[in-house]
Amino acid sequence: MTLDQALEKIHWLGHDAFRVDGSKTLYFDPYEISGGPPADVIFISHEHFDHCSPKDVGKIQKSGTIIVTDAASAKKLSGDVRVVKAGDRLDIDGIAVQVVPAYNTNKKFHPKAAGMLAFVVTLDGITYYHAGDTDYIPEMKGLQVDVAFLPVSGTYVMDAKEAAEAAKAIAPKIAIPMHYGAIVGSVDDARRFQKALEGVVRVVILSKE
């Protein structure tokens, strides 16, 4: 699959929620979604209500759905829940998953000690990085990813300028801004992020579906 073909299969569902269609159907942090194709795998970064939403998981969960998340979120969910922590690697039906940390460096909402997560997931030859709720952290350097979903709103996560620095360190082929338009942040944050990376990293601002 080419990168542009992969891009057509990425659906931003608002806030930090994405669906990636391919040989498997993946969801990341489903929140306030209207439904959609049943999930093969759901990745949940941490237990906050706008990331771990059992109600929204229920809209896309089927009998064989696998949920990959941290221990705190797992307590709120049912079904085939795989509890992971940063540093773990797993293979789920041919989907390669690397679990990496997500945390704040200059605010208190997502402390490193809480063990909140981000995911590097390879599906159909394309590697996606869902950064979760995070600031620009040292662990981002050296990640080998094609597509990076990065929060840009500030307040609880890195702002557009910080996110642009993170994107430069990660050097994905495509960066897609998230964490705006729902609880905090607006499309202006996404545009600032895009402008800061002009000529450096290709930024694609997706319309909410």
Quick gist of this model?
With 209 residues, the protein is α/β, with parallel strands linked by helices.
- CATH-scheme architecture: 4-Layer Sandwich
CATH topology name, in short, is Metallo-beta-lactamase, Chain A
- CATH class division: Alpha Beta
Order of helices and strands: HEEEEHEHEEEEEEHEHE
State the low-pLDDT regions, or none: none
Number of strand elements: 13
C-alpha-based Rg, rounded = 15 Å
Structural class: alpha/beta
**Helical content band:** 10-25%
- Tell me the domain tally: 1
Description of the structure:
- With about 210 residues, the protein is an alpha/beta fold.
- It has a single domain, classed as Metallo-beta-lactamase, Chain A (4-Layer Sandwich), CATH 3.60.15.10.
- Helices cover about 20% and strands about 30% of the residues.
Question: Which features characterize this protein?
Answer:
Metallo-beta-lactamase, Chain A, single chain, 18% helix, seven-stranded mixed beta sheet, alpha/beta, globular, 209 residues, 5 helices, 13 strands
List the helices and strands and how they pair.
Blueprint: H1 3-8, E1 10-14, E2 17-21, E3 25-28, E4 41-43, H2 54-60, E5 66-69, H3 71-74, E6 80-83, E7 89-92, E8 95-101, E9 117-123, E10 126-130, E11 147-151, H4 160-170, E12 174-178, H5 187-196, E13 202-203
Helix pairs in contact: 4-5
